[in-house]
Amino acid sequence: MTPEKLAAAVEKLRKAANSGIKKQMSWKPSCKTGSAKWVYDGVCSDPLVFGTLLGLDGPPSFKMHKIPVADFNNLLGQIQVSVRYDYLYLTGSHVNVRWSDSGEFKFSGTYGK
Q1: Dihedral sign computed on CA atoms, order 42, 106, 67, 37
Q2: Backbone angles phi, psi at 100, to 5 degrees
Q3: Which residues is 64 bridged to in the sheet?
Q4: H or E element, residue 88
Q5: Alpha carbon separation from 27 to 5, 65, 87, 107, 108 (Å, rounded)
Q6: What integer pLDDT is reported at residue 66 of this predicted model?
Q7: Could you tell me where the DSSP H helices lie in the chain?
Q8: The dihedral sign for the CA sequence 42, 96, 81, 52
Q9: CA nearest 44: which of 75, 12, 69?
Q10: Count of CB atoms within 10 A of residue 72's CB?
Q11: For residue 83, what are the β-bridge partners?
Q12: Which strand (E) or helix (H) includes residue 98?
């Protein structure tokens, strides 16, 4: 895979994940405490693309990994949603990343004010 195609595939996956996470972030009473939950399921047939998205040197070698929220925001772009008179952000100390060899992955975490 050429570097241009790899960059395009990573950008496409990044935009899809960013958009999918933002669509789940809506106001709930648990947002006040920052404990509303979100989960994004996706499929990436090329492990190298997924590894590059997460800033790894190659394909992921883990089944489950925890990424600090600040690093996750840097990798996927700022994840922030406007609700009426406030904004919702990713909260908690980390985002859980699950990866299976079949190409399926799952990001999960919490959000709130």
Answers
A1: positive
A2: -115, 155
A3: 98
A4: strand 86-99
A5: 37, 28, 10, 20, 17
A6: 92
A7: 3-24, 47-53, 69-76
A8: negative
A9: 12
A10: 21
A11: 86
A12: strand 86-99
At residue 50, the pLDDT reads: 86
Per-residue tokens: 20:
């999918």
Tokens of 71: 């690093």
User: Looking up tokens 């395009």, which residue turns up?
Assistant: 8
Q: 106 burial class (0-12, 13-18, 19+ CB within 10 angstroms)? A: middle
pLDDT per residue as tens, the chain (113 positions): 778 888 888 888 888 888 888 888 888 888 888 888 999 998 888 888 888 888 888 888 888 989 898 888 888 888 888 888 888 988 888 999 998 888 899 999 999 88
